[in-house]
Specification:
Structural class: mainly beta
Helix content: under 10%
Distance between the termini: 10 Å
Shape: globular
Largest sheet: 4 strands, antiparallel
Number of strands: 10
Length: about 180
């Protein structure tokens, strides 16, 4: 990791592709759109216009069988976007049926639009869940999936590096914790 300016660093992992791994790519398709408007639609009219996700809330999104994703997909490649959050925070994407892990997939400030690519394991009922710290509109586009039995290895997101120190600033295994800000250069 290289940083131009001094900063704290966080590294979260959510999967890996072994040699010869399998991934089915798709034409991107919107599967969640919380905003309402003539252009704010999803590929099938589901999960659209439901309103902003509340602060500290979890939003469930059905991905299996939508937008070209196989009904029995093991994982999905997503583009997740936070739109004009009320304050600073983050979104964590995780398999529904599990507790939100201490990790983030995208980090945002207030009144910005922030997208990020996410590899997510599909959870209970063919759904992925999104936890958001601050209230925000959410957009989720699917652009690929891992077939059932595919060779891509998905993980529940886990923190590997945390340079900050605090009771909630803890990597999954306690290693690489609290080392302080990374210096410039």
């Amino acid at each position: 990791l290289f940083t131009l300016a001094a900063t704290d660093l966080i590294v979260d992992v959510n999967g890996y592709v072994p040699a010869g791994g399998s991934l089915e790519t798709l034409v991107p398709a919107r599967v969640l759109e919380t905003r309402s408007g003539p252009d704010d639609v999803t590929v099938d009219g589901e999960f659209e216009g439901g309103g902003r996700a509340g602060a500290g809330s979890v939003t469930e999104v059905l991905v299996a069988g939508r937008g070209g994703v196989a009904p029995d997909a093991a994982a999905v490649m997503l583009n997740v976007t936070a739109v004009f959050p009320d304050g600073p925070g983050f979104v964590t994407v995780f398999p529904c049926g599990q507790e939100p892990p201490q990790a983030s997939n995208l980090n945002y400030g207030p009144s910005v639009v922030v997208p990020n690519a996410v590899l997510a394991k599909v959870g209970v009922g063919g759904k992925v869940c999104l936890f958001t710290l601050a209230a925000t509109d959410l957009i989720v586009d699917v652009n690929g999936y891992v077939p059932a039995g595919g060779s891509l290895e998905t993980l529940v997101p886990a923190r590997l590096l945390e340079t900050r120190s605090g009771p909630d600033d803890v990597p999954v295994d306690g290693a690489f914790e609290g080392g302080g800000r990374a210096g410039a250069g």
